[in-house]
Amino acid sequence: MRSILLVKTSSLGDVVHNLPVASDIRARFPGARIDWVVEEAFADIPRLHPGVRRVIPVAVRRWRRNLLAAATWGELREYRTAVRSERYDLVLDTQGLIKSALLARQVPGRRAGYAAEAAREPLAARFYDDTYAIPGNLHAVERNRRLAAAALGYEPNLPLDYGIAAEPLAAAWLPAAPYCVLLTASSRADKLWPEAGWLQLAAALNARGLACVLPGGSAEERERAARLAGGMAQAVAAPPMGIAELARLLAGARLVVGVDTGLSHIAAALGRLTFCLFAGSHPELTGVHAGDTAINLGGAGAAPTASQVVAAVTERL
Predict the structure, then answer these.
(1) How far, in Å, CA of 253 to CA of 275, rounded?
(2) N or C, where is the chain less crowded by C-beta within 10 Å?
(3) Cα–chain-centroid distance for residue 79?
(4) Which CATH class is domain 3-152?
(5) Which helix or strand (DSSP H or E) is residue 182 part of?
(6) Which residues contact 256 (CB under 8 A, 6 or more apart)?
(7) In this predicted model, what pLDDT tens digit does every residue of 288-304 receive, in sequence order?
């Protein structure tokens, strides 16, 4: 197996969940060349993996909003040129959506993906040469890994390895004391955790010698982070950062506590002690997944209480 193209475009957590596929392929086929098609906003994630040779960004979300623009069609032609620059032995779509299947369809080579009964959008299966019925009750990480194993003909029994590392961030604004990262923001309001809980957790962490760093992506998220940090004894609201810099921030943290957001999955993938707080979604299929350093608390409609989170965190400290 000489050359493989992975198609996993979004969202941030889904892209992180696909990293072990690259590790598995490299373990089974050490000489394989692995490329990856991904949404431009998340391109820095596969770039963290040393086994990924080339990252090919796409902008499906942006293209949809500007479908009639000449620039959109120019970028689509650039994508076709990029993926047709070599013939891949396998084009593997682990997304299972029509949009990802159409992206895969533009690439010469054998195309594989989920069977209709296993794909998130069954129609996607029509665009593959080979399909595989992977059980839907597995965690997303394990579904991706099993799909790759089935398509490439090896046993899915390798140790879990996200394959990424990041140099801890060195920045003048970071606390002098050891720090933890609190990921308080989510794209969905029902996934948020009460602000009073964050304040109670921060007090418990401060009492154990840990300062808190609170990142935020959008202006609204950074405003919330600043408001929360203002109510904590030892806390810093982080400045705007890209994904690569955020990965370095997480890599240097003593621990990470976050809501169900892609950054929580990056922290777990980096081997940080990670607590993921669920309030509006279920952790069984898409929770943080990295062995005993990744702890999911709560569930849809059943957010963990502040005392439960403090107890879980302080027990591990």
Answers:
(1) 13
(2) C
(3) 23
(4) alpha beta
(5) strand 179-183
(6) 180, 181, 182, 183, 250, 264, 267, 272, 273, 274, 275
(7) 999 999 999 999 999 99
Give the number of residues written for the chain: 317
Q: What value does the mean pLDDT of the chain take?
A: 96
- Could you check whether 3-152 and 179-316 share the same CATH topology? yes
CATH class of the domain at 179-316: alpha beta
261-290: average pLDDT? 96
Q: What percent of the chain has pLDDT over 70?
A: 100
SS3 at position 115 = coil
User: What one-letter code names the amino acid at 238?
Assistant: A
Instruction: Quote the pLDDT of residue 68.
Output: 84
- Count of Cβ atoms closer than 10 Å to residue 170 Cβ: 8
Long-range contacts of 50-57 (CB under 8 A, 24+ apart): 50/163, 51/22, 51/23, 51/25, 51/26, 51/163, 52/22, 56/82, 56/83
Sheet holding 235-237, edge to edge: 235-237, 211-214, 179-183, 255-259, 273-278, 294-298
Give me the residue label for tokens 């050490």: 30
DSSP state of 276: E
Angle between helices 140-152 and 12-28 (to 10 degrees): 40
Whole-number Å distance between alpha carbons of 108 and 67: 24
Judged against a pLDDT cut of 70, whether residue 1 lies above it is answered with no
pLDDT tier for residue 265 given thresholds of 50, 70 and 90: very high
Is the pLDDT confidence value at 113 over 70? yes
Q: Which of 107, 158, 153, 151 is nearest to 133 (CA)?
A: 151
Helix (H/G/I), strand (E/B), else coil: 271 = coil
Whether 213 contacts 249, CB under 8 Å = yes
Q: Where are the domains of the chain?
A: 3-152, 179-316
Q: Collapsing DSSP states into helix, strand and coil, what is residue 167? A: coil
**Can you read off the two tokens belonging to residue 242?**
């890209």
* Structure-token match 């040469």, residue found: 129
